[in-house]
């Protein structure tokens, strides 16, 4: 059984089709640990060996566990305080989606997120990320398919909760895991209940993304913003749950409610007038105090940034022009940093980790016209981008909103390219980018070299057996996207025997991977037009007039065209701005035009 768990590991870059195969021979059931339709006690009465310290809701799950509750201080390292030599190990739980391509995209992202949680050392994230093993993972029924209220207490049904526990225990006995990552958004109560049931800290999608931001932040500004996001997230996690005795309690061990005398009328009058401050109130108060402190520091950052922006605008480039700023935006891992490095001949940090960039950077570039501009590499976006992050990173996001021009980088190999594009557009609107700027944005389809490999040197479709890259022409992409049903969460019977488990290649070799064939057929049906995307390396525009370009930040394809396009767009913009200014300063027409004044 344990061997099976370890077989789930494979190089991260190529998530095999096997991940999508659905096995009905659940690891746990096959061992007779739990039978299907086993009756599971309600969560509130699950007696688990969970001993999640009360402080875990205040600290990162990876905080130094030796710190006691009395040590709680909101110092700078409260969010991320772990041994950088050994990044935390996560066990991934992925709710199922249909169609399989959507499930594959979600799972692939979840595994990438789980592996991205690593602290930088000397400004670099360690090791060869591409060679990293996939974290163990489990695909389970998706209760959201039925009703969000169905399992309000623990998100999953009791069968799934117990099955995850069984798999987790099995995996844990081979290699200890620090936490479970559930790739969905959980409420505070659901998170607490799952922690109690599984005996491990549980991270939901929002929590993990915030953790990654904290781990990757390098500059003071990014650290402040990431900590603020973490703080606001933790505030929503301060929940009271029903204890083993059925009473509502704050901590997992049923801590006493009243923890301080604050609020009592002990001002020398000799009698007690209040009930004192509860643990919950105490934690809330500390969070708010720290929040106010962080907000005032972030305000400073904002002011400094605004001054710097104004000075850049004033400072002359060539011909007395101000320095225009072009912000490169896009979904995380689309290749923004690699593209900015290639355009500016610099060396920004980039790798396959998600949110490799948390600290925005500016680089100067000389356009073909000789004009000097600044290109800013920014933080990537993702679906379900935590609202706390968007709010906390206001100062950084302002740079994007204030840029003269936006370049939206898309990973042309992403199976959910269309979804990624809409998410980025949504976030841009959310942070206040004007409609004009969105209309004027350049869309870059990056990583076309990978598509080239796919189609083979002669233009004929190629590609490896395991490669799931969708190969569409621009128009085909639009067609397929509109035909594709929206991604649907799947919840079949909440039955342990229905649990799908990511299979090892060995298991597939045993003839259990029926889904492989289905995917082959699916790929054939999708159709390919290798020539069409190649045409994208020449600037073109879509039906909405949005300028598009195919590039490879690695091979350099399309980069010169991109620089020309940026040059052109800025020139047009400048001319338009001048025209507005001219109009502004022209004397207003008056009726008594004939009234010449003789001096
Ligand atoms: N083959 C290929 N790989 C690319 C290309 N552009 C970027 N990559 C790779 O894609 C991965 C992500 O690149 P980054 O530049 O870090 O992406 P990013 O958008 O800055 O990502 P975050 O900062 O994490 O949001 C890296 O492994 C790059 O080497 C490209 O044009 N072709
Ligand atoms: Mg980056």
From TrEMBL:
Pfam families: GTP-bdg_M, GTP-bdg_N, MMR_HSR1. Residues 517-526 have a biased composition (Acidic residues). Residues 324-574 form the Hflx-type G domain. This is Hflx-type G domain-containing protein. Residues 469-480 have a biased composition (Basic and acidic residues). GO terms for molecular function: GTP binding; metal ion binding; ribosome binding. It comes from the Eukaryota. Keywords: GTP-binding, Magnesium, Metal-binding, Nucleotide-binding. Residues 454-499, 517-547 are annotated as: Disordered. One of its GO terms (cellular component) is cytoplasm. The keyword Magnesium applies. Transmembrane segments: none annotated.
């Amino acid at each position: 059984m344990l061997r099976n768990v370890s077989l789930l590991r494979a190089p991260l870059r190529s998530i095999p089709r096997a991940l999508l195969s659905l096995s009905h021979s659940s690891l746990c059931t096959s061992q007779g640990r739990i039978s299907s339709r086993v009756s599971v006690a309600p969560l509130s009465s699950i007696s688990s060996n969970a001993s999640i310290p009360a402080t875990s809701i205040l600290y990162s799950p990876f905080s130094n566990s030796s710190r006691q509750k009395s040590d709680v201080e909101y110092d700078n390292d409260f969010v991320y305080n772990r041994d950088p030599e050994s990044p935390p190990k996560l066990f991934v739980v992925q709710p199922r989606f249909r169609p399989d391509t959507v499930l594959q995209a979600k799972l692939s992202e979840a595994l990438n997120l789980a592996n991205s949680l690593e602290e930088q050392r000397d400004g670099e994230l360690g090791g060869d990320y591409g060679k990293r093993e996939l974290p163990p993972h489990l695909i389970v029924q998706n209760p959201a398919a039925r009703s969000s209220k169905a399992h309000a207490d623990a998100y999953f049904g009791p069968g799934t909760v117990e099955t995850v526990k069984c798999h987790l225990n099995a995996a844990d006995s081979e290699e200890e895991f620090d936490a479970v990552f559930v790739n969905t958004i959980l409420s505070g109560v659901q998170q607490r209940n799952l922690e109690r049931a599984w005996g491990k800290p549980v991270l939901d999608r929002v929590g993990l993304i915030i953790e990654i931001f904290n781990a990757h932040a390098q500059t003071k500004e990014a650290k402040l913003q990431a900590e603020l996001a973490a703080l606001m997230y933790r505030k929503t996690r301060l929940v009271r749950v029903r204890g083993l005795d059925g009473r509502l309690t704050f901590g997992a061990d049923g801590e006493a409610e009243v923890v301080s005398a604050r609020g009592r009328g002990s001002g020398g009058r000799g009698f007690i007038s209040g009930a004192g401050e509860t643990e919950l109130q105490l934690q809330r108060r500390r969070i708010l105090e720290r929040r106010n402190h962080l907000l005032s520091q972030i305000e400073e950052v904002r002011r400094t940034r605004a001054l710097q922006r104004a000075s850049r605008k004033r400072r002359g480039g060539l011909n007395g022009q101000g320095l225009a700023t072009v912000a490169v935006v896009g979904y995380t891992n689309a290749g923004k940093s690699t593209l900015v490095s290639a355009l500016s001949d610099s060396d920004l940090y980039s790798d396959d980790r998600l949110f490799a960039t948390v600290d925005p950077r500016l680089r100067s570039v000389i356009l073909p016209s000789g004009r000097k501009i600044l290109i800013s590499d920014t933080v990537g976006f993702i679906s379900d981008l935590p609202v706390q992050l968007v709010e906390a990173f206001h100062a950084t996001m302002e740079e994007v909103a204030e840029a003269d021009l936006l370049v939206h980088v898309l990973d042309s190999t992403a199976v959910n390219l269309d979804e990624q594009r809409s998410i980025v557009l949504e976030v841009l609107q959310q942070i206040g980018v004007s409609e004009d700027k969105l209309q004027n944005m350049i869309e870059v389809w990056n990583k076309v070299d990978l598509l080239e490999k796919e189609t083979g040197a002669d233009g004929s479709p190629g590609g490896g057996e395991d490669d799931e890259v969708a190969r569409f022409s621009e128009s085909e992409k639009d067609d397929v996207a509109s035909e594709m049903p929206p991604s649907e969460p799947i919840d079949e019977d909440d039955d342990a025997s229905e649990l799908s488990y990511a299979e090892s290649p060995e298991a597939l070799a045993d003839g259990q991977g029926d889904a492989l064939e289905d995917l082959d057929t699916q790929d054939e049906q999708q159709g390919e037009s290798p020539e069409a995307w190649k045409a994208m390396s020449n600037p073109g525009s879509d039906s909405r007039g949005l300028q598009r370009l195919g590039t490879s930040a690695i091979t350099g394809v399309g980069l010169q065209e991109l620089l020309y396009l940026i040059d052109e767009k800025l020139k047009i913009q400048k001319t338009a701005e001048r025209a507005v200014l001219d109009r502004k300063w022209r004397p207003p027409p008056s009726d008594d035009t004939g009234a010449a004044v003789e001096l």
